[in-house]
Every structure is written in structure tokens, then in C-alpha cells.
Amino acid sequence: MTTEKQTDSEEKISIFKKICLGLQSSDRKVRKQTYLDTEIYLSKDIDFTDQELRVLFTETYIYLLNGLRDKTEAVREQAIKFITFLIIHKLPLNDFYLTYVFPVIVERIGTVELIEESEEVRLQMLQLLNDIITRYSNTVQLKPFLNDCVIILCETVKDKFPSIKELSCSTIIKLAAALPRDFHNQAEVLIAPVLSCFGHQRYKVRVEAICAIGEIVMHSSYKGLDETVGPLAERLFDQIPAVRRAVGKVAGRWLLEYRDRYSFFHKILPLLLTGLNDEVLETRMEAAEIWEKVGMQFQNENEKDLKDELDYLVLPPKHYPPHVKQRPNVGCRALVKRNISKMAPALARELAGSWQEDVRVRCGQLLCALALHAEADIAQTLPALLPAMYAAARYDQDGRVVDNVVVAGEILGCFVGYDTWSALVLPTIDEGPHYGHLTVLRSLVRGSPAERIAECVEEIGKALAEDSVCCSRKKNYQLEMVRCVQALVEKHTHGTNNSTGYYLFKIIVIQLSLKHPEIDGKIIEDVLDELRASLELKYNREMWDLYTGRLLTEIGDNPRIWTTVSDHECVFLTVLSRCEEAFGKNLDAIGNILREVLDTEGDAESRLKTFYVLATVFEKKDVIFKDAVGLAVFLEKLIEVEIFVPSLVWHAGATAEAIRTMAASCLQHALTPSNEVELFSTETLRPLSDKLLPLLVSLLEDASWRSRQIAVDCLTLLGEEDRRKEVWRVEDLVAVYPEILKRLDDPTEKVRLCALRNLPVILRNVPPEFKSPHYKAHHELIIDTLLTHFDDDDEQVQELVYDVLEAVALINKKELLDKMERHKPMLRNQKGCDRIIRNFESLKIEEIDC
């Protein structure tokens, strides 16, 4: 029987060796086919004993393994398939076989010099190594070949072919699991090669590399963790969510299983906590799940130290961020609190100084997570964190970073007391703020509970209302200042009982006055409405009544030196244009400022701008003077003594000319009659007329046609007012009407038409003595001048002249008709002449002689 078995074994071996002879053929097709034949032979239903297989391998391995070096790629591929079949599926577990296979694999893909040129063959050979590790996992047979595996993987992980890199990383993980007690001897050698894959363009390679690093560090000393934390943190900025999730998983495993994790919590925590605020929901949920496990484990491991919190502090704080659905467990909070002092400096440095936007975004997310977990204990790190938050909010163009800083600030405000953060923030603002300071301040105020900060709104408002703080013309600064006021208004609950409302009102008015052109004014107006509501006032004018006087007192320091770009000048003009009834209640303060601003020695452009605003204000005199106190004295100083009269005096230069025009326009609005308010009394009007009439008459000769036009209107309005107060004298009429008649020859059509429209008003109600024969020469001058223009080609002029003649007919009809009869043959406007004769003859003597 023994002889028969021996003969049978020899026959099997002989057949196999005969088949293998084809491996020595010079024909590559034969060599390839031989590998197929040998596999088919070994796959038949023939029972081979372990000894027979050993003999087969021993006598043919030289030829079988030599195929891995074959010149033909197809043969090498077939050889790898056969060796895989033989080692993995046919031969029993024995390091004897591996002793011959590993040197060839090392030779082909484990050397610095590239031996195997085919990427596909290198991949298949690496897969062979992977299969060997899988089959021999946790066996003593694999242990002697750990060094060879590491040598191979160190090279293949640096291969240019992405699939080889990816498979190399997964093979490293398998190797660590296959030799858990021995892998640590070689683990650190793999760190540098694997880290080189972190920047690969294929995200699957990056994911596998991160997982491999996680496994390597678990078997390395602390140096391995130190070396990999930085590159792992950079992967948090990866655009692919799967990569960021891989970092979170690795960090979670380290936090749970790394043997010296307590010494490295401060380095590992940011890798996981950043994921809690990731943009992708799946990433956030996965990070939260892992973090919950980490916290529970830490809680269980430190149950004695955390006993008080576990027993007594079971409920969330009274004021907790409303957007947070669930408070982190005690272990999570304790972990952050114990390590935040170590994490804060690095976080602050990267948040403020990193040149990469993604880095700053992740730092902002991490800051939110730290603030939420540390709660009140974060106060100890505020001196380091706040400057970084200021800088990030100011310089960062990425809105995501600013949003994270704002959210973090709101969380800080919720947990940290006002006394703590205000002692750091307000002095910084006093020293010279930028809008980053205001962004952080706004978030702190908004996050602070109303009942804790309501009493402190006045202090913040006072700090912001300083001119050095709130006077800025920069767009972003103004927007943040408005948002700060809005946040303070939300917390303000004391009506008008203190100065808070004034400070906030002042800030808003200043922002309106200095508003950047690109800012929508409605934003500021809305905040003003919110302030009014918080002050429990029904109308905005009530705010102006309350605070205009105090604001004018503050800005009225030395207005003589103001220019058009002076902050206080802009504020003053805004107050004039918007204060309405408060104008009349603060006449003394306004008059004092106007006297200095409009002084003839003051800045010309500033005077011009002020006159323009004053003119628009006087259009609403029914409103602004409704409840005025001391109006007569105010107008006397304003018009007669200090402002209008000096400004109407002629001075050389285009600027002086423009000022005269605006002063006259302003006077015109002041003289326009009002139904609600009586501006001038009989006692004040006569002296005023004596001063203004000569100046307005001289203004009729001004170089500016607009000044001449306004002067005509002003003379008419002044005459009307004098007539109503019965102080209109014939001397005034004789001084005025000839100058207006001259304007009928004005080179500017608008001035001519203006004169024609105003002449009927002036001549319709003349003093009775002007109708007497002593003034016949005046009558003739008026009629002769008008008849000259009655023949104008323009029909509009003819109609206006007719209206004037109608007024003249009430003065001296006889002279008018006589001259018309005499001049009719010489006039072209025969229809107009007939109309005058026909209509004016019917006028009653009573009307003329009245």
C-alpha cells in the first residue's frame, strides 16, 4: 500500500513538473498557457497531501516564481494570478512558502528604484501581498515577514498610480490588525510615506491615508501623534465631506482608545470638535455621535471627580443659547474645560493670522464648539480669543468666518457675565476701534440675557456715543455701528428714564449724517423706529423733542471753524432738516450755531451748504415754528442782524455769488406767507424792510440770473407782507417798481417772465397817495415801458403784460387809455390794443378811485 501511494505521489509530481517545463519556453504564449495549465491541474479533483504540495513547490518554485520577472507583462500577470491561487488557496499555512515569495515581491515593488514598470502588474502584486496578510493574519508564520511588508508598503504608498496608493493604505491597516503585538516595532517608519498621500488629488486616496495614519498612530509612540496631528488638521479644510468625516473618525478613535490620550486631549480634540459645526449635516451628526461616546467614556473614567456635576448640576443654566437643542454631556464639557487653556492660543493664532480662508473657517467653527462646551469657564481665555475675533471680523472677506465669529460671540455673551467681557472690550473700543470690535461687541450684547445686560446698556451706549468712536465715514464701520445700536435697543427696557435713549439716538443721527453713499438709509431709519418703540414713544418727533437740545449743545462747540467735511457740521444740518417741531423749541441753540456757521468770515462752502438746508427747512415753517418760543427775537437776529443781511451784500467771486443766491432763496422761503404761523410782527417788519429793500434792489443787478429772479420774488413777498401789516410806504414802492421794470429787459427769459408775474402783485394794492396826480410821471413811466413790451412776439409775454396793465388801470385808467389810443397805430399787437380799450373802458371809477 505504501509503495502504491508513493508511486501515485511520484506520478502527480512528475505530471506537474512536465507541465512546468513550458515555463522555460521561449514563446511567451506557451509560458502564459503553462501557468493556466498548472492551475487547472491543481484545481482538478485530485487530492494532494501537504507533503506532496511541499514537494511540488520545492521542486518547481524556481520556475514558478521566475515568471514574476518575465519580460512579458501578460506572463507576469498570469504568474501573479497563479501564485495567488497557490499561496492563498492551495498551499497550507506555512512560512516556508512565504520565505521564497517575499524576496521576489520586495525585489519587484519594494525597492527605491522602479523595477516593475507596469502599473497594473504592480497593483496585482500588491494585491497578492494584501491577500497573504489577510490569510496569515494573527499567525506566527507572518511575523518574520513584518519587515518585508513594511519595506514594500513604504514604497508602494508613494507610487504614482492612485489605485496602488489606495490599496497600500488599506493594506497597512490590515497589517496592523494581522500583527497587533509586533506592528509597533515598524509603525513609525510608515508615517512619512503615508503622510505624502494627504495631498493627493483623488479623495479616496486621502481618505484611506487618513485611516491608515489613524491605525499607525495607535501603534506608535507619542512622537507619531505629534507628527501627524498637524497634517490631519489640514485635512479638516478639505472640500470633500468624506475626507473630513475620516478625520473625525480617526480623532474619535484616538480619544477613545489611544493609550496616552490624557496627555494629548488638547491636540486631538480640535480634530473632532470642528466637525460639530461642519457645513454638511451628515458630518455634523457623525461627529456628534462620536463625541457623545467620547464624553460618556471620560465621564465614566472620572466619575469621582465629576460627582458634583453629575449629582447636582443636571439642569441647563437658566439662560442657554436658544439654537442649541441638546446640551453636551458632562464628560464632553469637562474635557473641553480642562483643555481649553491649551487650545485657545493656537486657535487664536490661526483664526487671526492664517492666510488660508478654509483654515479660518474651521477655526471659527471650532471656536463656536469650544464656547458652547466651556460655558462660563471660557472667560479665562478671553484675553487671547477676543483680539483674534476682532481681527477675523475685520479683515476676513469670507462671510462664513464672520458668521462663525458672531455665533461664537453670542454664545460667549450668554455664558460670560457682562462685568467680565466689558472690562476687556470697552477699553479697547475707547482706545480706537475698527468695525471688527463692533462686530464682536454686537454679538456679545445680542447673546447676553436681557435681564443681565439691561442695566448696562447705558454704559455701552455712552462708550459708543463718543465722537471719536461713532464718527466714521467708512461703510463697514457704519453698518456695524448701526447693528450695535440695534442690539442695544433690543436689550433696552427702561423707556426714557435715563440717558440711554439719548446716547443711542445720538449714534443713529450721526450715522444718518455721515452715511456712506452705498448704505441704504432705510436700514438706519428702521433702527430709529425700533429705538422709538423701546422708548415707549408714539412718534419719532417726540424723540427729537427730547434729545435735540442736548445734541445741539454737544456739537455746538466752535462752529466757526466747521467745514463741509466736519462731522459736527453734517450732524447739525441733519438735525435742522429732520427735527421738525423741535426746531422751534431750540431756537436759541440753533440761532447761536447759525450765527457762527454763517459768519461772513467762515468757510464759504459750509455757509453755502447751510443756506441750502435752511432754505428747505423754511419750506416747512408751519411745522418747525408751530410751538416756537422767542420766534421774533430769533428771526430778528437771523435775518436783520447776523445772517441774511451780511450775506446779501455783494462780494467778488463765484462762491460769494452762490452764497448770495442761496441766502436770497432762504429769505424767499422765510417771507412766503404761512397759514399757521405768523413770523413777523408789525414792530419787527418795518425795520426789517428798511434793511432788506436796498439789498434786494441791488441784488436785481447781480451777475447770477437766479439771484435776480429770487430778488424779484423777495421784493414782492416783502411788499405783500408790509401791506398786510400796513407798513408799506409809497417811498418803498417808488424805490422798488422801477428796478423791477428794468428786469423786463433782462437777458434771461426766466427773469423777464418772473418780473412780469410779480408786477401785477406789486401794482395792484399801491398806497392811495401813489394814485394822485403828483405821481403822474411814475404812471407814464410804467405805462410806456409796458406798452413797449406789449408788442413782444411771444404771446406769453403779451398775456403777462396785459395782466400788469390791468393792475395799472386801477391806478390811472385815463392815462393808460390815452396812451393806448396814441400808440395803437404804431403797435403790431392790434388785437391786444382793442382788448385793452374795450375792457378797461368798462372799469368803474370807484375801483380806480378806491
From TrEMBL:
The reply on keyword Repeat is: yes
Q: Which UniProt keywords apply?
A: Repeat
What region holds the TOG domain? Answer: 101-318
Intervals holding HEAT repeats: 736-774
Q: Which GO terms describe its molecular function?
A: dynein intermediate chain binding
Q: Which SUPFAM superfamilies match?
A: ARM repeat
The terms describing its cellular component in GO are: cytoplasm
Q: What is this protein called?
A: TOG domain-containing protein
Q: What is the lineage of its organism?
A: Eukaryota, Metazoa, Ecdysozoa, Arthropoda, Hexapoda
